[in-house]
Amino acid sequence: QVQLVESGGGLVQPGGSLRLSCAASGSFRSINPMGWYRQAPGKQRELVATITSGNSTNYADSVKGRFTISRDNAKNTVYLQMNSLKPEDTAVYYCNAVMVVRALKFSYWGQGTQVTVSS
Questions:
Q1: How far apart are alpha carbons 15 and 1 in whole angstroms?
Q2: What is the SS3 assignment for 45?
Q3: Ramachandran area for residue 15 (φ above 0: left; ψ -120 to 50: alpha; else beta)
Q4: pLDDT given for residue 56 in this prediction
Q5: Is the predicted pLDDT of residue 99 greater than 90, yes or no?
Q6: Distance of alpha carbon 66 from alpha carbon 74, whole angstroms
Q7: 56 vs 50: CA distance, rounded Å
Q8: Cα 79 from chain centroid (whole Å)
Q9: Which of 7, 20, 24 has the alpha carbon at shortest distance from 76?
Q10: Positions of E strands within 40-118
């Protein structure tokens, strides 16, 4: 059974920082890519950032220069360092991983972690 477990959300003031983590566990051959998405109340889920196993990254324009995605392949973990947070970054953040399980590709989601940016 494959699982993604997220941690690191919380309440932070505007301008502050948070670091999210997402660890994958279970039986799989590979994970590529891994990424973070977010969903604010009343809005659709949107891409935040993705990273491949070769460390190629992709960011939403709204977070470029403020957020940094990274991964530790040995630990099957992806991180999202969020700096200069704004109230509009408030959302539930979801980890996503595309994994090869028994020669088939599946997209898995974490349970989500709340990030609230407010004074």
A1: 39
A2: coil
A3: left
A4: 97
A5: yes
A6: 26
A7: 8
A8: 7
A9: 24
A10: 46-51, 57-59, 67-72, 77-82, 91-101, 104-109, 113-117
Q: How many CB atoms lie within 10 A of CB 105?
A: 11
d(CA 55, CA 60): 16
Over the stretch 66-91, which tens digit does the pLDDT of each residue have? 999 999 999 999 999 999 999 999 99
Nearest in space to 52 (alpha carbons), one of 71, 39, 67, 68: 71
Cα(11)–Cα(8) distance, rounded to whole angstroms? 10
CA dist., res. 115 & res. 24, Å (int): 20
Q: Find the distance separating the first CA and the last CA of the chain, reported in whole Å.
A: 40
Counting Cβ atoms within 10 Å, is residue 3 exposed (0-12), middle (13-18) or buried (19+)?
A: exposed
